[in-house]
Specification:
about 70% helix, MetI-like fold, mainly alpha, about 290 residues
Length: about 290
């Protein structure tokens, strides 16, 4: 049983890391809030004074704001649906005894370790190029006209690229959850005459509830700030401008740090709203 002295010693040892972590989070947040109330143009006069909530009003009243929010939510929702459904199917497949199982698992998980910029460039140039891409050759082979993926189907293309990168993460988490399932439950259900669909619906899927919750929460946190894939593929054109990319444009292209900081605050608010919604709706599985 821990004594008061040991608890105090533990707090003292944890204090430096806690202070460093708080500083790591609070300093950028404080600076973002500070600059969001100022007109700060680094290349056009520097600090031009305090403007109050003018940056917030200008950012939210921009014609690009709500479309960017909608695009962000569509990408997040589309990627979550694809990765969870395909992740469950892949996890079930990889759980079966097959030849070369270890190699197959490594190949399935490998895309997660590819850098987002590299992933976007590979899909753009090797698969979706309308002239020399793999899909273009495939379309010509069946007598069809190649699709301009990144202009005619830009949003589905982005969802496909991002899903390819995040599918291994979902598969790994869900596969681990399936392997933790008691084999006696499966055997008992099979002896009672339950078919594959019945075993999946009443045994495997309820067991995966917590793992699916973890996948959804973690992926949502990162997907809300998706940027690199958009930057190297569509550059925000053809209706693919997310809130993060809009902030990038306001800061670097317009050289308006104050306006971009206000957008950053809106992004934080959006992330918190989505996180609270997920914790209330999906996160209840963690308490079961």
């Amino acid at each position: 049983m821990a004594t008061q002295h040991s608890r105090s010693a533990a707090r003292m040892m944890m204090a430096p890391a806690t202070i460093l972590l708080l500083g790591w989070m609070l300093v950028p947040l404080t600076m973002t809030l500070y600059f969001s109330f100022k007109k700060y143009l680094p290349l056009r006069g520097g600090d031009l004074g305090w403007v109050g909530f003018d940056n917030y009003v200008r950012f939210v009243s921009s014609s690009s704001f709500w479309p960017a929010v909608a695009t962000t939510l569509v990408i997040v929702g589309g990627v979550l649906i694809i990765t969870v459904i395909l992740g469950v199917l892949l996890a079930l497949l990889l759980d079966q005894p097959i030849w070369g199982q270890g190699v197959v698992r490594i190949l399935v998980i490998a895309p997660f370790f590819v850098m987002p910029t590299v992933s976007g460039l590979v899909w753009k140039n090797m698969f979706m190029d309308p002239v020399n891409g793999f899909f273009a050759h495939l379309w010509r082979a069946v007598g069809a006209e190649p699709i301009q993926w990144l202009s005619q189907a830009s949003l589905p293309s982005l969802i496909m690229i991002i899903s390819w990168q995040w599918l291994p993460f979902a598969t790994l988490i869900l596969l681990t959850a399936i392997q933790s399932l008691d084999s006696e439950q499966r055997e008992a259900a099979e002896m009672d005459g339950a078919g594959p669909i019945g075993r999946f619906s009443f045994i495997i899927l309820p067991h995966l509830a917590r793992a699916i919750t973890v996948v959804v929460l973690i992926q949502t946190i990162f997907l809300l700030s998706i940027f690199a894939e958009i930057f190297v593929t569509t550059a925000g054109a053809f209706g693919t401008k997310t809130l993060t990319y809009l902030i990038f444009q306001r800061v670097l292209e317009s050289q308006n740090v104050g306006l971009g900081s206000a957008g950053g605050v809106y992004a934080i608010i959006l992330a918190n709203i989505v996180a609270i919604f997920l914790m209330r709706v999906v996160g209840k599985n963690l308490d079961r």
